[in-house]
Amino acid sequence: KQEVTQIPAALSVPEGENLVLNCSFTDSAIYNLQWFRQDPGKGLTSLLLIQSSQREQTSGRLNASLDKSSGRSTLYIAASQPGDSATYLCAVRIISNFGNEKLTFGTGTRLTIIP
Amino acid sequence: NAGVTQTPKFRVLKTGQSMTLLCAQDMNHEYMYWYRQDPGMGLRLIHYSVGEGTTAKGEVPDGYNVSRLKKQNFLLGLESAAPSQTSVYFCASSYGVGAYMTDTQYFGPGTRLTVL
């Protein structure tokens, strides 16, 4: 059974710092991995999607990497801003031999950027 | 475009009551999903649909039913609500390119349901 872990559960950093959020998964046979952002009381917003054949994806100040063999992904945020404060979730997608698809979410890291 | 919308935003039910949550998307997506989010457990897939008229079970389908009569709408029903169904419910949709649901999912704002 695929398990997705995000440590730490909460993180506070001063504005302007670069930071890394971690995501680990137990089954390396993933199809892709996605990072989401969730603001309090709101839905999820997709940030980056990395296919299993890719090593990283970049969007603006965000860079996500994927190491399938070690079961890890990181989300790097450069020059953090107070507006980056949110909960960040990673999700991995696996597809079974029978064609069944499953998206498994981590429980998230709650990020607070201190002005 | 409104994206993915959900109604209602909040609801309180008594045990045994029934209700239907409505999800609507205006992006012409083929695939739609219902998740529930509980503290410390992450999002879990309840049911999903790969096209109009189709539905399939997810990870935690018991106690829920769904229907996809129109491409843009995906309904989640609770026939006899239980306190264990207290949760935040999210709907999502995606294009579903190819044989698998490989692309980005777009989420609605959520429905906060409390069952007393």
Which protein chains make the most extensive interface, counting residues with beta carbons within 8 Å of the other chain's beta carbons?
A-B, 26 and 22 residues
Q: What would the principal axes of the Cα set say about the shape of chain A?
A: globular
Number of strands of chain B: 11
Category from helices, strands and their pairing of chain B: mainly beta
Distance between the termini of chain A: 41 Å
Termini separation of chain B comes to 36 Å
Indicate the mean pLDDT of chain B: 91
Q: Encode the helix/strand succession of chain B as letters.
A: EEEEEEEEEEE
Helix content of chain A: under 10%
Strand content of chain B: over 45%
- Helix % of chain B is under 10%
| Shape annotation of chain B | globular
Overall SS class of chain A = mainly beta
Largest sheet report of chain A? 6 strands, mixed
Radius of gyration of chain B: 13 Å
Uncertain stretches of 5 or more adjacent residues of chain A: none
Query: What is the count of helical runs of chain A?
Result: 0
